[in-house]
Design a protein that fits this description.
The chain is α/β, with parallel strands linked by helices and 176 residues long. The protein has a single domain, classed as Rossmann fold (3-Layer(aba) Sandwich), CATH 3.40.50. 28% of the residues lie in helices and 33% in strands. The chain has 5 helices and 9 strands; from the N terminus they run H-E-E-H-H-E-H-E-E-E-E-H-E-E. A 5-stranded parallel β-sheet has the order 4-3-7-8-9, sandwiched between helices. Helix 3 crosses helix 4. It is globular. The chain starts with a helix and ends with a strand. It binds adenosine monophosphate (AMP). Adenosine monophosphate binds next to strand 2, strand 7 and helix 5.
Length: 176
């Protein structure tokens, strides 16, 4: 299956959730079993030889593919969630999004120094969410971090926010 086929399955919703935002609706991509399998195969092939021990998914759209890829990689899955959702002791980061401010948390004992981590989210826009997630994971002192998105909004240049030594990749790229 071509990347174009996957790209055209993403639905564009103008002015959602606020005017000026072109929302990338991935539910239309996920409803096809062929598309879903292709996405998980692409991610598996990309990360299979990296020794990933934990996939970290960001609430909430990082929870769709994150666990699927973790199972294929033979890795564990760790959620990063919005405040008040995780029941044990957490560490927190605040950040600015493409629309609005927010905070995210991770359990303080979710990762160890031995972990090689793939942080996954559905979409890279300004990069604020993933930078906060990257900072959280880094604070827990893991061995190595990879970053992955299903979709990158290229013109926002969010990938520029990450240190050069961190491999940042996305499956589908959109201009807007
Ligand atoms: P950012 O922190 O600006 O990179 O925003 C990324 C987060 O916000 C992701 O978790 C996305 O789910 C969501 N998001 C931001 N912009 C969009 C968009 N245009 N379409 C869909 N989701 C978006």
């Amino acid at each position: 299956m071509s990347i174009e086929t996957l790209t055209s399955a993403v639905r564009n919703i103008p002015d959602f959730p606020i005017p000026g935002i072109q929302f990338k609706d991935i539910t239309t991509l996920f409803q096809s079993p062929e598309h879903l399998k292709e996405l998980s195969d692409i991610l598996y092939e990309k990360y299979r030889d990296r020794g990933i021990t934990k996939v970290v998914g960001i609430e909430s759209r990082g929870f769709f593919m994150g666990p699927a890829v973790a199972i294929k990689l033979g890795a564990g899955f760790v959620p990063i969630r919005k405040p008040g959702k995780l029941p044990y002791k957490v560490i927190e980061e605040t950040y600015t999004k493409e629309y609005g401010d927010d905070a995210i948390q991770i359990h303080e004992d979710a990762l160890t120094k031995e972990d090689i981590v793939l942080i996954h989210d559905d979409l890279l826009a300004t990069g604020g969410t993933m930078v906060a997630a990257y900072n959280l994971v880094k604070k827990l002192g893991v061995k190595k971090i990879y970053i992955n998105f299903l979709i990158e909004l290229e013109e926002l240049e969010g990938h520029m926010l990450f240190p050069e030594e961190v491999e940042v990749s996305s499956v589908l790229k959109f201009k807007v």
